[in-house]
Amino acid sequence: MLLLMLLPFSLSAQKRKKHQSQTDQYPQELYSSMEYRLLGPFRGGRSAAVTGVPGQPDLFYFGAAGGGVWKTTDGGNSWSNISDGYFGGSIGSVAVADSDHNVIYVGGGEKTVRGNVSSGYGVWKSVDAGKTWKSMGLDKSRHISRMRIHPDNPDIVYAAVMGNIYKATDERGVYKTTDGGKTWNKILFANDMAGAVDLIIDPTNPRNLYASTWRIQRTPYSLSSGGEGSALWKSTDSGENWERISDNKGFPQDTLGIIGVTVSPKNGDRVWAIVENKEKGGLYRSDDAGKTWSQVNDERKLRQRAWYYTRVYADSEDEDKVYVLNVRYHRSTDGGKTFETFNAPHGDHHDLWIAPEDSQRMIIGDDGGAQVSYDGGENWSTYHNQPTAQFYRVTTDNAFPYRIYAAQQDNSTIRI
Fold first, then answer.
1. What does the pLDDT read at residue 416?
2. Tell me: the pLDDT tens digits for 25-37?
3. What are the distances in angstroms from CA 128 to CA 97, 101, 380, 392?
4. Pairing of the two strands 209-219 and 231-235
């Protein structure tokens, strides 16, 4: 009996000794000088955070779901990573200060809450156009879906924090700093299951803020969207007080899900909201700064798979022109009544920036990365110049030299 009891221990020791001998036959010095290097391919992966810079037509930034922050100084012809070595690859928001273009704020954690969603590392700030970065807190935010900077003061910044999408947390809500990120105050909180998903400063009056909160819970294999806490909010005193304007006349009153919001730079009374709602979902418009609402369009193409899209953007020069992002992107020139559908080089669109001084200049973020247009979306730059595509699986064959095969998210299978 004693021999039988000792036998497993003896076999285990033999296995460990055999494994050790196999390891020892490959001296460590053979590998000590090896370094990782980029093999490709040079095509983009999911991006839900893009921005340009007013008055600098060739300068743009985007944040990838798995590749950090990237910068172009030639209108999207080439891109350079500016975040490696500072923070993780999952980016939810990128914002450049209008009053000082060297100041950039980045919010970590993508807002496209797929089953393979990645969280981030709080807020990061650069004061030299991305050459160096410094951590500025909100370390437990997990997912920051928007960062907005006061147009006249780069030290006043707002962050829309979704928080941990897998469990209840008090870290959710809208946060504000007045000292450049040294300290943050929570200025809007719905509940511990509803985080802030969209946020905009009224371009005509920076005291006016609009924010949406979204009740969302993710599991590895399912998602629950909507319920108590999902709402649209407005502040007229820089975030000191908030009114729940989704309670106002014309807005759907039953269960709400995710809401996207924007304000026309040409008319501060013109507010748009794209709303997830089972019975009355669609695009809503207010012409009195959110006091009353009317549904202007309920087409399915604008609101399908709402949890993955639901973004709306006002044109910078025409108050009747508005964009809604989805599998493809859609543009209305008649105040939202009808929409024309367009294709960028890739599908599944998540973010759009339109230059305030020239509405023909824009950058779009989608499941293929970021692309730049100078003619209002008629033509776009390529996404085959940004190595940020995500991989599900990687393997090699038995050829010599061997070939690498990999399956990419929304980008087919590649061989190198």
1. 86
2. 778 887 888 888 8
3. 12, 9, 28, 35
4. antiparallel
CA separation for the pair 294, 251 (Å, rounded): 7
What residues have CB less than 8 Å from 405, skipping those under 6 apart? 394, 395, 396, 397, 413, 414, 415
- Segments of 45-143 assigned E as strands: 47-52, 60-64, 69-72, 80-81, 91-96, 104-108, 123-126, 134-135
Instruction: Using the structure block, give the residue that is written with the tokens 């339109």.
Output: 354
Nearest one of 244, 324, 243, 235 to 276, comparing CA atoms: 324
Query: 103 and 126 in contact (C-beta within 8 Å)?
Result: yes
Q: Where are the domains of the chain?
A: 47-373
Q: Say how many CA atoms lie within 13 Å of 144 toward its Cβ.
A: 29
Cα 278 to Cα 154: distance, rounded to the nearest angstrom: 40
DSSP element (H, E) containing 389:
none
Residue 4 makes CB contacts below 8 A (sequence gap 6+) with none
35, 40, 42, 44: CA torsion to nearest 10: -90
What lies within 8 Å, CB to CB, of 106 at 6+ separation is 63, 69, 83, 87, 91, 93, 94, 95, 123, 124, 125, 126, 133, 147
Note whether 415 and 402 are within 8 A (CB): no
The DSSP string of 1-27 is -HHHHHHHHHHHHHHHHHHHHHHHTS-
Domain 47-373 CATH assignment equals 2.130.10.10: yes
Q: In this structure, are residues 102 and 128 in contact, taking their beta carbons and an 8 Å threshold?
A: yes
Instruction: Provide the b/e sequence for 291-309 (b: ≥16 CB within 10 Å).
Output: eebebbbeeeebbeebbbb
Quote the pTM value.
Answer: 0.91
3-state secondary structure of 305: coil
Q: Strand, coil or helix: what is 383?
A: coil
More reliable by pLDDT, 7 or 196: 196
Are 53 and 363 in contact, with CB atoms under 8 Å apart? no
What's the confidence (pLDDT) of residue 24?
A: 57
Stated length of the chain: 416
